[in-house]
């Protein structure tokens, strides 16, 4: 019962929040695993450790990982692999199966 015969209504903010929660990848399941690993689009994991191939979202996290897992090797920021840069260069190539890629 909602009280005094007033029907309970959902606000626009609540409905928008439900739609956002239902359609946004929050990182769980197989889709979240692919997103975190950075296999397809780079995902959350932007940087990759050159020694053990572990991924991290930013340079600071990669530095923390490096100090914890590879303490005897000095951290060199220029050796960290940027996954977004490598994937972006591969995806910018024109593919014949996509409409409009070979317009004359």
TrEMBL record:
Q: Which residues form the signal peptide?
A: none
**Recorded superkingdom:** Eukaryota
- For this UniProt record, give its keywords in alphabetical order, as a comma-separated list: Cytoplasm, Nucleus
Where it mainly occurs, coarsely classed, is cytoplasm
Renumbered residue ranges of the record's region Disordered: 1-43
Subcellular localization(s) per the UniProt record:
Cytoplasm; Nucleus
GO CC terms, sorted: cytoplasm; nucleus
The reply on keyword NAD is no
Which InterPro entries does the protein's record reference? MBS1/2-like
Q: Where is the composition biased (Basic residues)?
A: 1-11
Q: Which PANTHER family match?
A: GEO09665P1-RELATED, ZINC FINGER PROTEIN 706
What is this protein's name? Uncharacterized protein LOC106759468
Q: Which organism is it from?
A: Vigna radiata var. radiata
- Gene designation per UniProt: LOC106759468
């Amino acid at each position: 019962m909602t009280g005094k015969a007033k029907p309970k209504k959902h606000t626009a903010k609540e409905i928008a929040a439900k739609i956002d929660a239902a359609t946004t990848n929050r990182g769980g399941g197989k889709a979240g695993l692919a997103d975190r690993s950075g296999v397809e689009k780079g995902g959350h994991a932007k940087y990759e450790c050159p020694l053990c191939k572990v991924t991290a979202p930013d340079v600071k996290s990669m530095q923390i990982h490096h100090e914890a897992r590879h303490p005897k090797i000095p951290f060199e920021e220029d050796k960290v692999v940027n996954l977004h840069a490598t994937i972006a260069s591969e995806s910018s190539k024109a593919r014949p199966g996509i409409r409009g890629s070979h317009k004359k």
